[in-house]
Amino acid sequence: MQETSKDFFNQIVSEYDDLIKKHVTFYADIFWTIFRYLPNNFAPKHILELGCGTGNLTKLLHEKYPDAKITAVDAASEMLKTTNERLKGTDLTLIESYFEKLDFKENSFDLIISNLAIHHLVDEEKQNIFNEIRKWLKPGGLFVLADAVRAVSDKINEEDWVIFKEDNLKAGMSIEDLAKLVEHSRTCDHYATVPDLLVWLKNSGFKNADVLWRCSLWAVFQAEK
Fold it and tell me: What does CATH list as the number for 3-224?
């Protein structure tokens, strides 16, 4: 995550929860997919969340797995403060850090999950963090990635962005807020294609890497160690 991205999220923390539901019009679908495809007999003891934001997914993970220890990472300190308030009294460890600077022991986590965060990394950094994530996972552990993606076809990608902007305005986002978020995407985001992400996961040593759901700019993946 670039410094400008960190600053951006620190500045919008008070309006983030309202903006994200208008900006990512499939926000609820993403969460449904994440949890629907977790195995019924899966009982992680230690979860790592990369890019916790204001703790929306963190809270759901705690509700799903109340006995699990959760380690949540974000580069934006104001986001971490909100997550801390939202999950007071839980077994939660917060780490303020860029993903590239993290250093966990091998085989530390049963589940590693990232929602709408890894697209801030350039392609080489994405491949590097996938290598690290596999190392940090215990054998049999799962990695779930929900993120913004781009179409292989430039023509389809352009149409995705037209649909995305239309959906944002229909959801009630102001033209000013939309322009601010589009400019942030232009300067700070690095979208990869679904095929590239699957290849990088496979090259990192993951097995059964698959895309669970995709619609327009958004996709959810799952892979196993």
Answer: 3.40.50.150
